[in-house]
Specification:
By secondary structure, the chain is of the alpha/beta class. It has 11 helices and 17 strands. The chain has helices spanning 19-22, 28-32, 35-40, 82-94, 113-117, 148-162, 184-187, 200-205, 213-226, 252-264, 300-311; strands spanning 13-17, 45-48, 98-103, 107-108, 141-142, 167-170, 194-195, 233-235, 268-272, 318-324, 328-335, 338-344, 352-354, 360-363, 370-373, 377-379, 385-387.
């Protein structure tokens, strides 16, 4: 797929929605009322976390995980009907956005319709009981893809949903935990976009005493040399499996710099439900919750500016990041006729950084303000900025 992927996906913003907790009502119809706001935020693609019925056997919490699916071909009645879902997708399309849904094909709930109708589709232990590869996932049992009839069933299921939606986010596609684990270079044979999880521990290391910006940026640069020319990474600071990013940083200014770097990096940008309000509260996957209960800081105007900046980046050219003394990152896009630089003060350290652009006045692509390069240096008090 990376050899055929439309690399303009790098310019896109995906917004992840957990329908249950996105609105007070937790329904498809209620979500429609927020589509104008999400579109204005610069969203290109709405990613709906699993929309299917949730199993009851082994359920975690009062409502259960949306990833413990009872019927891959059904609709969670708590969200609405199939007609409600199709109407929602139509409204997403009317606003110029696309819709993708979660595909959770490694496992089902223990009481799924496949567990009762096709017991031969499941992985079994030595005693012949349905089992799982990840012990902590006690609310699911794993599917066994050595059975080719299961392949046919799942392909037919995909074809059903492909008549309605624009694409799929495939859960745990690499199948690690004791089984063959595909590398990202191999995943690009099948997928347009892959997570940044290949270097995620080094991203997290930036917020721990043992990690460094230098290690993280070195691995971002390694991606640029390792993957096919058409590779697209999903860049994010948080998602439903990770802590809220605002809980990792100690100032709103540092948060803004990291967000600017997120949008600057080559790849598709992911925002997770409510992230535009800088919440520190992590949304519960198993119980009723409110993704918008912690509206600490309204970042929507800023994210709109970042979205416009992202559209100006020459993402088909060479991309590189450079850590500057563990306090800032300098980003580069270099092509035959263009040089763009991003300056990000990620430790709120101040001072200045060397910038390889001629001295002069530049227009910051984020805010439209005028900034200067003087003596080959840029004042970090003016960061974040994207110039050139």
């Amino acid at each position: 797929m990376a050899r055929q992927t439309n690399t303009r996906l790098r310019e896109k913003v995906i917004y992840s929605v957990f329908v249950r907790n996105h609105t007070k009502e937790g329904t498809f119809q209620a979500l429609e009322g927020d589509l104008d706001r999400l579109a204005a935020l610069g969203t290109d693609i709405i990613w709906l976390m699993p929309i299917h019925p949730i199993g009851e056997a082994g359920r975690k919490g009062t409502l259960g995980s949306p990833y413990a699916i009872r019927d891959f071909r059904g609709i969670n009645p708590e969200y609405g009907t199939l007609g409600d879902f199709m109407h929602l997708v139509g409204e997403i399309h009317k606003r110029g956005m696309k819709c993708i849904i979660d595909v959770v094909y490694n496992h089902t709930s223990p009481d799924s319709i496949l567990a009762t109708g096709h017991p031969e589709f499941f992985l079994r232990d030595e005693a012949g009981n349905p089992t799982r590869k990840v012990a902590d996932w006690s609310d699911v049992v794993d599917l066994d893809y050595s059975n080719r009839e299961l392949w046919k069933y799942q392909i037919e299921t995909l074809k059903i949903w492909a008549e309605i939606v624009d694409g799929f986010r495939c859960d745990v596609a690499m199948r690690r935990a004791g089984y063959y684990c595909a590398a990202d270079t191999e995943l690009y044979d099948a997928f347009d976009i892959t997570y940044d999880y290949d270097i995620w521990p080094y991203f997290e290391g930036c917020f721990q005493p043992t990690g460094t910006l230098r290690e993280y940026t070195a691995l971002v640069n390694f991606q640029e040399s390792e993957y096919p020319a058409g590779y697209v990474k999903l860049r994010c600071l948080e998602n439903h499996d990770q802590p809220r990013f605002a809980s990792r940083v100690d100032s709103d200014e540092t948060l803004r710099n990291w967000l600017a770097l997120l949008y600057f990096e080559k790849g598709t940008t992911l925002l997770y439900s409510g992230q535009e309000y800088a919440p520190r509260h992590r949304v519960d996957l198993f119980n009723a919750d409110d993704a918008y209960c912690d509206m600490r800081l309204d970042l929507q105007p800023y994210l709109k500016q970042l979205r416009q900046m992202k559209r100006t980046l020459p993402m088909s050219t060479c991309f590189q990041l450079e850590a500057v003394e563990e306090r800032a990152v300098l980003g580069r896009y270099d092509g035959p006729e263009t040089r763009v630089r991003g300056i990000f003060d990620l430790k709120n350290a101040g001072g200045s950084v060397a910038v390889d652009l001629p001295d002069g006045t530049y227009t910051d692509r984020i805010t439209g303000r005028e900034v200067t390069v003087s003596g080959g240096a840029f004042d970090l008090a003016k960061a974040p900025a994207v110039i050139g």
